[in-house]
Amino acid sequence: MEKHFGKAYFAGARVGLFSHYTYPTYAEGKGTNWGGTHYSAENPRTATSAEEAAALFDGEKFASAARDLGAEYVVFTAAHAGFNLLFPSETMKATGCGWKCAQTSDAIEKLISGLKPLGIPLVLYLPPNDAHDIPDADLKQMGWVDTESRMAFLKRLIREIYDRYGDGIAGFWFDQGGPTEDVCDFVRACSPEAVIFVNTGVTANTVRHPLSDFIVSEYYGSIEGCDSDTLPVHYSQVNRQIGSWYAVGGKAPTDARNLYRYTVRTVSVENQFNAGIAWSCGPYLDQTWETGVRDLLRDLGALLKSHEGIYGTVPGKSYVTKPDSTLDKSDWGVSTESPDGKTVYLHVMNAPAEGVLTLPAPADGKRFREAFCGEERLELTELDGGYTIAFPERFDQVDTVLRLTVG
């Protein structure tokens, strides 16, 4: 049966891949490169055109990276710097700025073709108000002279995208404050089940934009050089870098264990129904990845797939993870549970003293009747309203998952 990729799917998604892959433009009179993916680690030149960037893109290779990560969705740039589109756009050509789109190559179609057989939906990133890196002459020619004209252009572009890709697009991730209400209504008219993410800046957002289906935090601090247990977690969709925003010579900032533990803590946060965490990185133009990043995706994915209690779960209600919390060495870990509440997963990240995990009474009043670690049944004792669990001898230093049956 084909999956349905509507709002409910994305609300329950735990892991995504967020990727900027861009052809640069230079701000008029500034000489500043606002976002150009490099050709390779050894050759830092950017693409010569949007056509070259689209032509070099390999959708199957990218899709395999998303699969290895265990991503449940991909957010990918249809345009970023200078609003240069990575597909041949009649909407853009009609403005007279035909150089601001690919001529024959279509990176988006290639990515859809790579992702569809894997059952991974694609959300397109667009920056409808990001005009700071477009020369004034181009803005005038495109008709981007005010909000009304920008939004009219955006609706024409969205119509073209749906005509071109149909249900290959699950929705849009709008940056820089997003579009106006009539544009979002237009998206819904084109595709009633489309998901809409609206970001309001490079910040940690705690309030949902009124036009967004989800709370979105484009960036929630750096993970480089940190023990991720010390970093606060949040209930918004979080995008943290594990390479550069676009490949420009960076490297993997940490190891898979560190990323895994942060991912699980994010999944467990109270009210986390906003598409989880989307780890952010992307390939060079030659389709290699920054140092260590491709291996990191594979290693993180292997950990995510080998531990239960992550995919298809909701934040634990018996043992609650609060927003902005960290994980102290004295804390046992975090919890998730099945959507029906009949199974609770304890993600024990710090070994309990003397081989016994002591739990307080569940916050939601649940009663547990059995405890397992994998197939091994553990001794579960109710004590003063709480529980003790005799821990297995084998302790997974990444995440020992205990499965509690409610009844």
Helical segment tally? 10
Calculate the mean pLDDT score and round it. 93
- The secondary structure category is alpha/beta
Terminus-to-terminus distance: 32 Å
Can you walk through the features of this model?
There is one protein chain. This protein has 407 residues and is of the alpha/beta class. The protein folds into 2 domains: 7-306, TIM Barrel, CATH 3.20.20.80; 315-406, Immunoglobulin-like (Sandwich). Helices cover 25% and strands 18% of the residues. It has 10 helices and 17 strands. The protein has helices at residues 7-12, 50-56, 59-69, 90-94, 107-115, 136-142, 147-165, 181-190, 256-268, 293-306, and strands spanning 15-19, 74-77, 122-126, 171-174, 195-198, 216-217, 237-238, 277-280, 314-315, 333-337, 343-348, 356-359, 368-373, 376-378, 380-383, 386-390, 400-406. The strands form 4 sheets. A 6-stranded parallel β-sheet has the order 5-4-3-2-1-8. Strands 9-10-11-17-13-14 form a 6-stranded antiparallel β-sheet. Strands 12-16-15 form a 3-stranded antiparallel β-sheet, with no helix packed on it. A hairpin with a 2-residue loop joins strand 13 and strand 14 (376-378). Helix 7 (147-165) runs parallel beside helix 8 and helix 9 crosses helix 10. The protein is elongated and about 75 Å long. The two termini are 32 Å apart. The model has no long low-confidence stretch (mean pLDDT 93).
